[in-house]
Specification:
The chain is mainly α. It is 62% helix and 0% strand. The protein contains five helices and no strands. α2 packs across α4. The radius of gyration is 13 Å and the shape is globular.
């Protein structure tokens, strides 16, 4: 059985920032979570966990979400001041 390595706290913080940017973009577009879920075909709990920063998003899901909200992928994953 593979060993599970806990995420680095810096990765958790970056995940939370991406989650916050997804939520902000969704709200700016006047979309509900259900609107995004319907447009992406994602599972409700999976989307809610992603937007809450509890799970790491897959690239495919980020692409679906950016299309559903109508923003570039780079908007959802941008980092301020070029800091990783």
């Amino acid at each position: 059985m593979p060993r599970v390595i806990p995420p680095d706290p810096r990765l958790l913080e970056r995940r939370r920032r991406i989650a916050a940017q997804i939520r902000a973009a969704r709200l700016h577009a006047n979309l509900s979570q259900q609107d995004v879920i319907s447009r992406t075909g994602m599972d409700r709990s999976a989307y809610q966990d992603l937007e809450a920063g509890r799970t790491s998003p897959l690239l495919d899901n980020l692409l679906r979400i950016s299309d559903a909200i109508g923003v570039p992928l780079s908007y959802l994953v941008r980092e301020e001041n070029g800091q990783p």
